[in-house]
UniProtKB/TrEMBL annotation:
It comes from the Bacteria. One of its GO terms (molecular function) is DNA-binding transcription factor activity. It holds the Pfam family HTH_1. Belongs to the LysR transcriptional regulatory family. It comes from Blautia pseudococcoides. Residues 12-69 form the HTH lysR-type domain. This is HTH lysR-type domain-containing protein. Keywords: DNA-binding, Transcription, Transcription regulation.
Length: 307
C-alpha cells in the first residue's frame, strides 16, 4: 500500500512506516535490521527515501545511537496510528469470517466475573471463539489502544486518552468466618470486632489487602494477629476450618455461602467497595458479537445487583 505525495518523490508505504517504527523503537539501524530480518542497507534506504521525499531529517546521528528529530517525533505519532489502524482493519475484516473476540481482563476481574459471562456468551454466540489475555491493567491498556484486544475488564480506572472506561458493576467486601465461629450468629460487625481475632490475609500487593489496610490506616488502626495466604482457595478453606476470619469480595464466595460453608457479615464502619469497568477504544467500530459481549457484561451486572 502506497501513499503518494503531491510533490513527487518516493511513495510512502506501510513498509517504510514499519521500518521507521522499528528504528525509532531501538534507536539503531543495525538492531532494527536484525529484528526485521532484513539487511541494514535496506533499512538505511527506507529511511533515506522518506527523508529525501519530505526534505526532513528523521534522526540525529549520535556516536552510538540515533535520536528522533522534531520531524521524526511527528512521523512516529502518525505512523504508529496508521499501522495500528491498518492492523485493526485487517483484524476486523478477518473477524467477519473467523468470528473471534479477544478479551483482556485483570486477574481480579477474571476471578469475579469472567466465568459466568463467558458461559452465557457461548450459549448466545456459539460460533464465536474467545481468546483471553490476563495481565496487569497497565499493560492491557496498551494492547487495547493498539488494537490487539477488542475489549477489557478491570477494577482500575486508567487515564489512557484513547480509551473509554465505563463502570458497570460495584463490588462489595464482607468479613467471612466459619459457621462455628461466634460471629456466625451476627448480622453485621464493627472494626472493634477485629481486635484479638486472627485475620487471614492475602500476600503484599494484593488489591483486597491493600484496600483493607488503607481503610484501617485512615482510622488509625492495624491488625495485631494475621497469617498470609498466597492462594484464595487455601484462604477460604482455612476460614471454613475456623482458623481465623478474613475480608473478601462477596462475588468470590457465592458457592460457599449457598452451601453454608462460610458465613458473611458486612462491616458497618468500614465500607470498602470497588468498581469494575468495561474498557473500549473511543474510535473503534465494534462487530455485532463484540457488542453482544459488552451487553452481557452489563446484563450480568444487573442480575448481581439484584441478588
Amino acid at each position: 500500500m502506497s501513499f503518494f505525495n503531491s510533490k513527487g518523490g518516493y511513495p510512502m508505504t506501510l513498509r517504510h512506516m514499519s521500518i521507521f517504527l522499528e528504528v525509532a523503537s531501538c534507536n539503531n539501524m543495525s538492531i532494527a535490521a536484525q529484528n526485521l530480518y532484513i539487511s541494514q542497507s535496506t533499512v538505511s534506504l527506507a529511511i533515506s527515501e522518506i527523508e529525501k521525499t519530505y526534505k526532513v531529517r528523521l534522526f540525529d546521528r549520535l556516536s552510538k545511537h540515533l535520536r528522533l528529530t522534531e520531524a521524526g517525533v511527528l512521523l512516529l505519532d502518525y505512523a504508529s496510528r496508521i499501522i495500528s489502524l491498518y492492523k485493526e482493519m485487517e483484524s476486523a475484516l478477518l473477524g467477519l469470517h473467523l468470528k473471534q473476540i479477544h478479551i483482556g481482563s485483570t486477574l481480579v476481574a477474571a476471578s469475579c466475573l469472567l466465568q459466568d459471562i463467558i458461559r452465557a456468551y457461548h450459549i448466545i454466540c456459539p460460533d464465536v471463539s474467545t481468546r483471553f489475555t490476563i495481565d496487569d491493567s497497565y499493560f492491557m491498556e496498551k494492547k487495547l489502544a493498539s488494537g490487539e484486544l477488542d475489549v477489557m475488564l478491570t477494577e482500575t480506572k486508567g487515564s489512557h486518552s484513547s480509551l473509554v472506561y465505563t463502570p458497570f458493576l460495584d463490588d462489595t467486601f464482607v468479613v467471612i468466618c466459619s459457621p462455628d465461629h461466634p460471629y456466625a450468629r451476627r448480622e453485621s460487625l464493627s472494626i472493634v470486632d477485629f481486635e484479638n481475632e486472627m485475620f487471614l490475609l492475602r500476600e503484599e500487593g494484593n488489591s483486597t489487602r491493600a484496600a483493607l489496610e488503607r481503610a484501617l490506616s485512615k482510622q488509625g488502626l492495624s491488625l495485631t494477629k494475621s497469617h498470609v495466604y498466597h492462594n484464595i482457595d487455601a484462604l477460604k478453606e482455612a476460614v471454613a476450618e475456623n482458623e481465623g476470619i478474613s475480608m473478601i469480595s462477596k462475588m468470590l464466595i457465592r458457592e460457599e455461602l449457598s452451601s453454608h460453608k462460610l458465613h458473611a457479615c458486612p462491616v458497618t464502619d468500614l465500607p470498602i467497595k470497588r468498581v469494575f469497568y468495561i474498557v473500549q477504544r473511543k474510535d473503534r467500530a465494534f462487530l455485532p458479537y463484540v457488542k453482544e459481549f459488552i451487553r452481557l457484561c452489563r446484563e450480568t451486572s444487573g442480575r448481581r445487583s439484584d441478588s
